[in-house]
């Protein structure tokens, strides 16, 4: 896991001096490096939106599948790519990464001015391949459970795990309490890779501790991936991931990248914050797979890829959600 001292050196230890929508912080206090990394990431997204109408820069945004803001692995630390005030520290750097589906003959490395030009943040492009971690013999996991309005026990998973099934079909997900297969309920529309299933018994609610908040991830914070096949691992939230339309509208990102990743069979697992004294774990995300980024020099970096669980729960109509911790 990235050392906390490394994280503290990546961005200024203060809030940006410009005004911007401060939508990212929850009621839980953040006192570590995530306090500043999360604030600078939200500010960087705001500045990307402000620059999106500039012809050339806006074209690069629109040609991207996703735009990520936060921390990235720098695969060529000996290369000074752009004039930036954000340092490379032990192979990591703060900035923006445009994720494309194919290489561009024109290598794009630039910087975006912040705080009226007093600072510059690096902007790069990479070819990204997202690999969803379901598989035929053990398709995935359940991230959280809840009761619907009729009192029926349900679970939340990744949509791609169960997308080939219709309502009422048995799906290759098993209740962690009774061991029987769940049944398909509904899928979320659009880009939301989430679905609900019904559980055959009362569900494993009594095994699930009361959660803290249902909230979005904050860049730089320590989290736990509760991977149903690979086991639990602690890691860092690297970056938030937005679509070009979200950047232009300043909407909250739906996805985020993590320092570590799982393997096939882990799709649908829970992502949470760690427990803290007198604070239960917050429910943050649904694990989907990994994101392999190839820079213009052909060097690869792999991140975990997850979905915002709060947004998924809201769209699926799930209330009083409890996390399924695959420990």
Could you explain how this protein is built, in words?
It is a single chain. The chain has 327 residues and is of the alpha+beta class. It has helices at residues 4-8, 34-51, 55-62, 159-162, 244-249, 309-316, and strands spanning 66-73, 92-100, 109-114, 119-132, 144-147, 153-157, 170-174, 181-187, 195-198, 222-227, 231-242, 255-258, 270-272, 283-294, 300-308, 322-323. The protein starts with a helix and ends with a strand. The mean pLDDT is 87. The chain is globular. The strands form two sheets. Strands 1, 2, 3, 4, 10, 11, 12, 13, 14 and 15 form a ten-stranded mixed sheet that branches. It has a six-stranded antiparallel sheet with strand order 7-8-9-6-5-16.
CA radius of gyration? 20 Å
Percentage of residues assigned to helices? 10-25%
Q: Tell me the span between the first and last alpha carbons.
A: 19 Å
Sheet-strand content, in percent, reads 25-35%
Structural class: alpha+beta
User: Strand count, sense and closure of the main sheet?
Assistant: 10 strands, mixed
Instruction: List the quaternary state of the chains.
Output: single chain
Overall mean pLDDT stands at: 87
> Which residues sit in consecutive blocks of at least 5 with pLDDT less than 50?
none
Give, in order, the helices and strands: HHHEEEEEEHEEEEEHEEEEHE
Q: Could you say which overall geometry the principal axes of the C-alpha atoms support?
A: globular
How large is the count of helical segments? 6
Query: Got a strand count?
Result: 16
